[in-house]
Amino acid sequence: MSRVFKREQAKRDLIEQFVWYAENAGTEVADRFLASTETTLRGLAAAPESGAPVPVTRQELVGLRRWQVKGFEKILLFYFPRPDGIDLVRVLHGSRDLAHLFEAADPG
User: What dotted CATH number matches 3-104?
Assistant: First the structure.
């Protein structure tokens, strides 16, 4: 069975994004975001190599992949494939300085 492992930072990212949608677009959109994210994560867990490789220089990030949340394509899921699913590292808006986030700080 495919599993989704969520790092603490990824959990915080999901909460922050949910709150942003609730405050700026309403709770219906926020709920739809969470449901779509969970559906997307289950799909990725079943096919972990689906995401695009993320070019990184930090050795501990080699193998990182990204995928868009269906219906919320500006929200990107960053994860490592695992034999039994995925390890979700971050959930970030695509307009952020992603290179800086992954090169300068602990990703999760």
Answer: 3.30.2310.20
